[in-house]
Write a structure and sequence with these properties.
It is built from 16 helices and 17 strands. By secondary structure, the protein is of the alpha/beta class. The strands form 6 sheets. Strands 2-1-3-4 form a 4-stranded parallel β-sheet, with helices on both faces. Strands 11-15-16-17 form a 4-stranded mixed β-sheet.
């Protein structure tokens, strides 16, 4: 019996880390007693009300692929404190004939104990909702006393004993400059480019966010320009979640927000703040326009240097690097290419290939490569079969080694992950071999391709369907030359 073990705690606090270790110990004893094989440990440090947990989603995906026979958790609340999510897990398990067992013995489908599943799912969700309501009430009480209830202060401020104070760096001056530049007529992205070029720290960098980007974004500028905290007022409770099981946030009417006027030192005058809001509303009405047209090579053109997608620029009648267009020349160069010229290059390529695709030399070369690939795939299949048997033997002994202390948890996890990764890789190769065996001869494939190409060549222009069918991606060099990767050949055609 292959067992997937799910372990979860809500936070990474020290006492919660101890709980993780305790849960592992319980499962080692339980699995040894049951004589089950450990397929994998799925560990999350996240609230049980959300389904956006990396390892829970991995567990659900593995369940859909029937990689194990039973899911084990300490109790149902570890899997989910969300009724809808609980039922999703249960339904997936039922569909794939996978059992669910909890160590508190409330749920054990192996023994027919599943009829109370709905009751426990409802009970745990209600418990989370009550906890959420208590936390919201406590935070609102602090807000009414003039305390900042968030954990991250607005850009330009620091949080000391629940109060906002001006930061002792250049960030307050950056806020002043952002408001001034906007009133001078610069847009969100233009302001962002200016701050990026000058090396000003972004909001994410200031708070030490792990995945903080290097560049300012227009969305960050807009957020600062609309934040009422900068006039010295503490305005809280502007949004709330719809329920404990949903991350969707809804706006709270102004009259129901918690406002404490002159709660901290202002960075922006009220007059300037109101002027920005009025100016922003006016520009929004002026800029209202239909949804931007999707151009022929949208999602196919990429910068050869930075890897970002190219954007269509109407007045250029072509494409430029999105990184350059948004952040400026200190980030990347234009990498510009005209749409009309690119269409001509691709049509010429396809016409040339249509004329030469059935030549004996080309067909023979491809058939030799195909034969070599088939022989290699056969060898890989035999290797796969031998390795599967070896992995089964190793898996049987690993849990015993872990229980006896011969190996530690890290070594066990590394061994199982390594084995699973290797197995997954070999399975992919096995699928490729099966596909190759089932396919027709290379010559027949080339003839079909030629017929298909000729059908498209009856058209006088390059259509979006042709781009979708024949092109994988197009890389644009700094000098404007392009490297076109076609779906039907391993060779990329370089055109000027």
């Amino acid at each position: 019996m292959r067992c997937a073990v799910y372990i979860r705690v809500s936070t990474d606090k020290e006492e919660q880390k101890t709980s993780l270790q305790n849960q592992r110990s319980l499962f080692y004893e339980y699995l040894e007693k049951q004589g089950w094989d450990v397929f994998d440990f799925y560990v999350d440090v996240e609230s049980g009300t959300t389904g956006k947990r990396e390892n829970l989603q991995r567990l659900i995906q593995d369940a859909k692929e029937r990689k194990f026979d039973v899911i084990a958790a300490k109790e149902l609340s570890r899997l989910a404190r969300n009724g809808g999510l609980s039922y999703q897990i249960r339904d997936t398990a039922m569909e794939k004939r996978i059992h669910i067992v909890t160590l508190d013995n409330a749920i054990n489908t192996l023994e027919g104990k599943g009829e109370m599943f709905g009751l426990y799912a409802w009970m745990y969700e209600q418990e989370s909702q009550r906890t959420s309501n208590r936390i919201k009430a406590a935070l609102n009480s602090k807000a009414r006393k003039g305390e900042f209830k968030g954990s991250v202060p607005p850009y330009g401020y620091r949080l000391i004993s629940g109060k906002l104070v001006l930061a002792e760096d250049d960030t307050p001056n950056n806020v002043i400059r952002i408001f001034r530049m906007y009133l001078e007529g610069k847009g969100f992205d233009a302001i962002a480019r200016t701050l990026t070029r000058e090396g000003c720290p972004t909001p994410a960098q200031v708070i030490g966010k792990k995945n903080a980007g290097l560049y300012w974004q227009g969305t960050s500028i807009k957020k600062i320009l609309t934040n009422p905290h900068y006039v010295g007022d503490l305005v809280q409770g502007r949004q709330t979640t719809v329920s404990v099981t949903s991350k969707v946030r809804e706006e709270i009417p102004r009259e129901k927000q918690i406002v404490t006027e002159n709660a901290h030192q202002a960075i922006i005058t009220r007059e300037d703040f109101e002027a920005v809001q009025q100016y922003m509303e006016g520009r929004k009405r002026q800029q209202a326009k239909p949804k931007a047209k999707k151009h022929l090579f949208t999602n196919y053109l990429f910068c050869a240097d930075c890897g970002k997608a190219l954007w269509y620029v109407h007045y250029r009648k072509g494409y430029v690097c999105g990184n350059y267009y948004k952040h400026g020349k200190h980030v990347c160069s234009q990498h510009s290419v005209k749409e009309k010229e690119l269409i001509g290059d691709i049509l010429a390529d396809i016409r040339n290939m249509t004329e030469t695709l059935n030549e004996n030399e080309v067909v023979g070369r491809l058939e030799v490569k195909t034969l070599q690939a088939r022989k290699q795939a056969e060898k890989q299949l035999h290797t796969l079969q031998r390795r599967i048997e070896k992995l089964k033997e190793q898996k049987t002994g690993l849990i015993r080694l872990l229980a006896s202390g011969t190996i530690d948890e890290t070594e066990y996890k590394e061994a199982t992950e390594s084995g699973n990764a290797e197995l997954c890789c070999l399975q992919e190769k096995f699928k490729s071999f099966q596909s190759l065996q089932a396919s027709n001869s290379t010559g027949e494939s080339i003839i079909r391709l030629k017929i298909e190409l000729k059908q498209f060549m009856k058209l006088e222009e390059l259509t979006s369907e042709m781009v979708h069918r024949f092109i994988e991606k197009i890389e644009v060099q700094a000098d404007g030359s392009v490297n076109i990767h076609y779906k039907f050949t391993a060779t990329a055609f370089l055109t000027a």
